[in-house]
Fold this sequence. Notes:
The protein is mainly α and 138 residues long. The protein has helices spanning 2-21, 30-41, 44-57, 61-85, 91-112, 119-133.
Amino acid sequence: xxxxxxxxxxxxxxxxxxxxxxxxxxxxxxxxxxxxxxxxxxxxxxxxxxxxxxxxxxxxxxxxxxxxxxxxxxxxxxxxxxxxxxxxxxxxxxxxxxxxxxxxxxxxxxxxxxxxxxxxxxxxxxxxxxxxxxxxxx
Length: 138
């Protein structure tokens, strides 16, 4: 039953990203729209439940074994979307940008619990976008 719940939570997050990126093209706004979609998927109750499972998996080998394939599937889907729409030609730079984005949005969601003003989080994402925009092609 727990494994089914884990899959359900990941499916909710993937469905949310799919809904937000259905009409995404490769234009200049694609990266920002994609980041907002990923940020949205890495927020709220489904993500909070996933975080709680991650913490529990730290000391529970069976839970970790059940969680890893699901998280890898989610990571792969997000990574594919990112590489397709980010417009970063260098694979190494694109991989680093993706990993930094995932760490950033996960951390922002964790700290959101204790923050009442989201403007700093929004500014941090804007700074990331400005930095990563330098890596994009033409």
